Records
---
Amino acid sequence: MADNTASRNHIHSNPAFDASVMDGGSKFFDDDGRPKRTGNLMTASAHIITAVIGSGVLSLAWAIAQLGWVVGPVVMVMFSLVTYYTSCLLVACYRDPVTGKRNSTYSAAVRNHLGGLKYKVLGIVQRVNLFGITIGYTITACISMVAIQRNSCLHKSGGEKPCPVNSNPYMIAFGITEIILSQIPNFDKLWWLSTVAAVMSFTYSGIGLALGIAKVAESGTMKGTLTGVRIGIHVTQTEKIWRIFQALGDIAFAYSFAIVLIEIEDTVKSPPSEAKTMKKASKISLAVTSVFYILCGCFGYAGFGDLAPGNLLTGKGFGDLAPYWVIDLANAAIVVHLVGAYQVFSQPLYAFVEKKAAQLFPDSHFITKEIQIPIPCFKPYKLNLFRLVWRTLYVTATTVLSMVFPFFNGVVGFLGALGYWPMTIYFPVEMYIAQKKIPKWSTRWLCLQTLSLSVLIIALLAAVGSIAGVIESLKDYKPFKTSS
């Protein structure tokens, strides 16, 4: 799931703008008073692809291995179709059907369509999900750093040494980096951040796919079975069931991008209508990413079979298929990508807490006062003590939790289960029902609710399977001590 945020340029009040210009738009401004949007089908498709393709692709070979050649690809196609359908429902909620007023964010759409209570529920879901994602990114980045160190050790020793590596120093280093970056104002709005994220995500995803194809070509056969990992050889019957559920969560995580869909729509010009453009963009981007995902997952499974690694680029089975630096390059791209992605997903949490604190304690100098620190050749840095303490504590908390539960597949599966149903299914369905005033118990209402309930059941099973996977991993893991 690469990470993209649409930056916004707001117009300050100006007497030169009269009401007629603000209401109907003009040559230079849209109907909400903002500069004319310039996004189109191609830019929207590119933004969605950037938002979708990310670290979730790394676990797909493992997920296919749990489900097998029959169910695995079918489940991925079904997730793609369901995601496309609910994306169409979501983008239809960008404008109010009566007034034409824009909802420029996901949360604004929920507030205006569903009211205060569900808006508050959404806020809780979003913040819990964002917190979990930053933990997941810390784990993923650390695993890639460990893989680089291990590859270097194996290369120097000629593969004769086991080369165990303690992950804790790398997690601490990642945490320190994020503490420093968290103090940079509007880091998540830097213009080059999305570009870097896109380049990095396609770099490691492309290398992963190429290595999977090379692995199949090396053996000359396609490994794997119709039903996935075989019971009694690599897993017990109970472990097989938990792994199947966890695999569903991993796939859901790979398709979790609804949280930024309306923000992307807010960059699109009209005519044609924003919803029409976004429906086409969603179709194009999901078709591209689904083909890419299926290729990555299937070639990874075909190359490794039952032994497909949980993280395709940190597995040990590529041997001499590629120079070790190629795999290191892919893992370095993951780290660079996730360093920025961590800030993109944590900045909304930072802003929420800091805004609430300022509202509750407006007279506190600790919370509101900014200290000017001169920096040669740059503008003075504005240091806020509350921001320094709060953001440091936040990053420290995510780092410690990552050190306690450094399990890639379990965490990714749980995050997929946690975020996919509410953000991609429940709220889009409920907003669409409210907007179209679909009668309760009508055929259409029943179909939409059946879809929502079905995905909820899948999400709950995925969450249970992921938790079971983490518990199983904890049996052999000693926090802060175990080396991998």
---
Amino acid sequence: MGTRLKVLSVFKKLHRTRLDVFREDERALTAARLKINEEFKNNKNETSEENIEKMIKMGSDVETVLREAVLQVEHVAENKLLLRPRESLLLENVPYCDEPRKKS
């Protein structure tokens, strides 16, 4: 894949992730959109292949962190928060067991 296509792919992936992670939070959606666009605009004249590859890697890493580590929390009352995890963050809740299970 050409460098230009890789850059566009990371750009689109960041925006798709932003839409998913900050769903229903207009302020966060706008701030993330502006930051993504600003970073890509600031580096659009970069010509060093090595630096471009580093920036592509950083963009991919940022997208992964957003997708896997960011949670939405909403203030619903004084001293009360509402956690809205995405489906992809929910794990099956399996109780811990010290002894291995016996095979039947």
---
Amino acid sequence: MTEPMLTLIFLLFLATGSLAQTANDVSWAKRVDTGSQVITTMQFYFHDTLSGSNPSAIKVAQPQSSANSLGGFGNLMMVDDPLTEGPDKNSKLIGHARGMYGSAAQNELGLIMVLNYGFSDGMYKDSSFSLLSLNPAMQAVREMTIVGGTGLFRLARGYALAQTYWIDPSTGDAIVGYNVTIATYI
């Protein structure tokens, strides 16, 4: 009698584990429930286009003179940048980064990032996280702070590692890879 009961418990355990795995319905993000919190890791690409007839980032403010600073100190950009699964601009659209970034350093390229990363794919549809951090854009890998979120990312805290995948120095257009780790309470 105990052997069939143990078999049943084992099968339920396996079914529960496979059910948790099916919750990861997208290839660009994974969730792990630790019992007290959920850790989500994501990898996606941010497409910042300043050029052309339909830019995703536009300058909304600039100081009277920023010619003496390396990164255009005081310039402010408003953005609605697509987020994609892969680096190709035609890869699957998974959301948008909306908000602003501005040049916040006088002697280097340091951008203050105030962005909401909203998702439109899979179980993350209608969830977002907020990033508020300095982006030292000339560093190969930049670590930035995640300060909150909505939906599956309510009460989020974490970090984003950004690495430039491609940049056109003549226009400023760029594709940036993001690796994000977010912790939320259950």
---
Amino acid sequence: MVVKVYGSDLASAKRVLVCLIEKEVEFETVPIDIIKGQNKDPDFLNLQPFGVVPVIQDGDYTLFESRAIIRYYAEKYKSQGTDLLGKSIEERGAVEQWIEVEAQNYHPAIVNLVIEILFARKKGIPSDEKVIEESEKKLGKVLDIYEERLSKSKYLAGNFFSLADLSHLPFTKFLADMGKMYLIEERKHVKAWWDDISNRPSWKVVSSSRWLLLE
């Protein structure tokens, strides 16, 4: 049965699509227009009561929250496609650890930058320069820790590409759109890591395609 992915061109939904491609899972996309408020329609709220994308339907099973979804598919199809969880319980623990680092440390700082720079620009409203400065400093400190980690292993959880790396792809791309890519490029090992993961075929497909063209 083909997996249905409800979402838009927003970054979190792309996290799910990359995972499905890596796992060689057939899917179809169901566009949800956030601008038009389709995420607040009763039918969608029946699937996701908080009105947030992405959501997947896998037969009779419905799941939301992008990191929960990628964990689900990495486990369900562990022996298919790219192994994104590691081969031992220790490797799995490292994957989970760095997914949490991304969610709790990396993501908040970069999201604030996206809101204050890209969203503010799109809406034609002034940015909060103090928030930008503070968020950039926080992100820089996180990336310093990444630099140390990646000086010892090719990827975050070890010498294998995993969900921990995959989860960084959609929002890190925004750094280029915001003129902040130097945060990556001035750190040798972080840059090597980003060049590697951002050149994976799965990400090239997702990052270069509009949502409707991914069916």
